[in-house]
Each structure stands twice: as C-alpha cells, then as structure tokens.
TrEMBL record:
Keywords of the record: ATP-binding, DNA damage, DNA repair, DNA-binding, Hydrolase, Metal-binding, Nucleotide-binding, Stress response, Zinc, Zinc-finger
Keyword Metal-binding: yes
Protein's name in the database: DNA repair protein RadA
Superkingdom as given in the UniProt entry: Bacteria
Stored CDD domains: RadA_SMS_N
Free-text function comment from the UniProt entry: Plays a role in repairing double-strand DNA breaks, probably involving stabilizing or processing branched DNA or blocked replication forks.
Entry domain remark: The middle region has homology to RecA with ATPase motifs including the RadA KNRFG motif, while the C-terminus is homologous to Lon protease.
Residue segments, region Disordered: 41-63
Region spans: Lon-protease-like: 383-486
Motif (RadA KNRFG motif): 278-282
Binding positions for ATP per the UniProt entry: 108-115
Chain ranges of the RecA family profile domain: 79-241
Amino acid sequence: MAKSTVQYVCSECGWNGSKWYGKCPECGQWGTVEEFHEARPAAGSKTAAPGRTSRTQSVAVSEGSRAAAKPITEIGMESVARLSTGFSEFDRVLGGGVVPGSVTLIAGEPGIGKSTLLLQTAGNVARAVANAGYAEAGRNDAHTVLYISGEESQAQVRLRATRINAVEPNLLLASTTDLATALGLIEQNRPALVIADSAQTIVSQEVDGISGGSTQVREVASALIDTAKTLDIPVFLVGHVTKDGSIAGPRTLEHLVDVVCQFEGDSETALRMLRAIKNRFGPTDEVGCFDMSGEGIEEVTDPSGLFLSGGGPGSAESAPVEGTCVTFTLDGHRSLPIEVQALVTKSVLPTPRRAVNGVDPSRIAMLTAVLYRHSKLNLLANDLYVSTIAGGQAKEPGSDLAIVSALASAATAKPIARTTCAIGEISLTGQVRPAPRMEYRLREAARLGFTVAVVPPLRKPVHIDGLRLVEAGTLTDALEALGIKK
C-alpha cells in the first residue's frame, strides 16, 4: 500500500487541515472533523485497476501541449455534442442533455425511484448509442452503457430491467463494491455512459473508513470524477440522503461534481419532480415532471392538468363547487395551475383546528386574521381545512388570494366559476400585491381555457387574447369580483 498523509476533513463544509478539532474552525459544527488518509500518487496508478493513469501522469503528459495561460479571446468554442437520456424532461433539466466527461449526482429519498430512473435511462441510451448521430461525435468505440450496482446483484437488476423494458444487449451490468474493480471495468469497456449506484456502497481499499463514511465517499467520488474527465465519459452517481433531506457524505461531494439533481416526490402519489440544484452546463431553475408506475417511469411533458379536479375548465365535470379556487404558481420556468380546496365547519373544540396540506400552515392563521379584519368575515372560531389537489404545492405568497377566496367561498357557500382564477399576495393591510412574473402565469391560464383572472393592479398593461383581467387593489374588491359576499 502506498504511503499516505493524514489530514482532517470536516464532513459538513469540507474544511481540511493537519490538526484535529472538536469544533470545525470553518463552519462551527461539533463532531464533524474526521481523519482522512489520502494516498500519494504512485508511479503506476492511483488504484489497483490495471492500466489506470494517475492524475500526476495525466498532467505531465498534457502539460507540454497546452500553455499555462491564454487570453480568453484566443480560446476556441468547440461545440460539444450532448448525449440524450431518452427523456425530454431529463434533458431539459440537464441543460439539453448529458455533456461528455461530466459527473451528475442524483439524490433522493429511499424508494423514490432513483435507480429506476437511471436504469431506464441506461436502456434508452443503450438503444441510441449505435446511431449515426452519436457516432459522428467522435465516439465510434462507445457502443455500450455500463451500470455498476453496489446494492443489488446482477440478477436483481435484470429483473427490474425486464419490468421496465430496459433490457438491451449492449447494456452491461456489474455488481461490485470495490472501487478498483469499478474503475477497471470503465477503462476496459470505454462505454458511452456509466451509472454508479451508489456512491455510499463503493469502497476504496487505499483509504480507511467504513462504507458510506465521509472519507470513503470523498475518495470514491474523486476517483470517478478523475476517470470521467480523463476518458471523457459521462458518469451518473447515485447519492443517498440523510434524515433532514441533505445529501449524505461530505459537502465537498456537491462541489466536486458538475451537476446535482434532487429527485423528489410524495410516496402517496405517483408524481415525481427532478430539480437541478447545481448545473455547470445549464440553468438551475428547471424542473422535470415524471409519473411513477409499475412499468417504470414516464415523463409528463404537460403537467397542467395534474393539479386540477374535474379535468380543468373545459371538461364536462367543470361545474362550480363551493370552497375551491384555482391559482397559478411558478416552479422554475414552468407555470402550474394549483386548485386550492377549503372546508369550513363549526368547531366543538376549545381551540379550533387548522389542518392544511400543500400550503404554508403559518400563512393560514395570518390570512384568516386579515379576512376578519378587512372583509368582516369571522372564521377565527371555525375549524379550517385547506388542501391542494394531487400533492401540489401552493406555498408561495402568490397563492394567498386563492386560499382566501376558497375559505370565503366555503364559509358563504358561494362557488367560484371554474373558468376564473385568482393570483396575488395578501398583505396585512388587506392590499393585493402582484406576484413575480405575472405574464407567464396569465398566459398559461389562457392556454388552459380560463377566461377571467382576478389579479392585483399591474405595473404595466398586459393583453392576453381570451383572458379578461379584473384588477383588484384590496381583498374586499377581489372577493366582490369573484362573486363572494358575506
């Protein structure tokens, strides 16, 4: 085993030093500084994988062929051919596809569908890597996809691949937890895409620490990143999350990789969201929508109707129902309609109940007080139940007007027309304030068939065909425009 130098690394912020501290000097967290043994680069290879080139050798070989520094105007802008994942939603989150040599970290709760998404992606890429489009990009030897599983056997992965229709002859499966073996497989096969599932199960024999520990995760990630950059092979790396939802392992793991994606969803629903938290090759405000089923994962290119009951304003079941109101929220660049439902009952308890789902609980108490103070509608002694449809989230301030309107509609038993939506923030003074990017929300409302939108006074006039805008400066005016009176 090569000589190693001892360092101490903080698993929270990534600080490193030659001395141990009980409290991290950088972030101030207690008990996060751990011992880290980093092997010195040897003359041969960094790991036991045959034929592997160390970082020192790679730098030495390429140092003579490139200048130390160049003017930015003299650096060329060569086009990079991205590899499609087979999911347009996935490609959009990544910024247009997978960049060669990039390392993408996919994190999420247990059982949310990370392995299913990546195995299905591996099957899609395996079908497409032999076509002329990717061969012309200079990767004529890359006709396979390598899936390395440290959690399941090859037979278990094959069973899941059969279920989701991801069985392809050029999809290579390997079951190993040894880092040297995994790196040897990558260098031997030179695939078009590598998927390592997961970073917490692969172990390096050159450093101390248990599987999944900060030392091991950092060493495994560094070796895979080095291989991806050296061989120009994109790598998908699966990461576990802790109890508080953060990515397990040292925080430097997120700094080292190129893209960090969070796979989210409610276990009680089939809807899954893929969000880009960090992306060196594209925007970080894109969101991909997927539907989880027994046959795998399907992308949802138009999720507008998922959060509306009765199929939206144009369906046969769009009769008005008391206690409902539709608003439009922004999730990245995407505007989504969210239906807010409210139920108001007389309370028999000393302290009335406030049960919510999909909305901010703290804003319900505030909006109830504003509704009583400025519209003379007293709901303080009633049990209030507020919920959204299909797990939608209406927690941004722009949903305040729809929440208040649904509560007022339920209390007065006066329904709001299904072709009417309400968008706006409610202040403590009873004023209705604009929400960010109103035009995006209103254009989506017109596209879905809404004909009336109750909005706050707009700073600049907006004209959208088929949609009549009713501006209301106060909460009372907005309720009157919606047809709700005490």
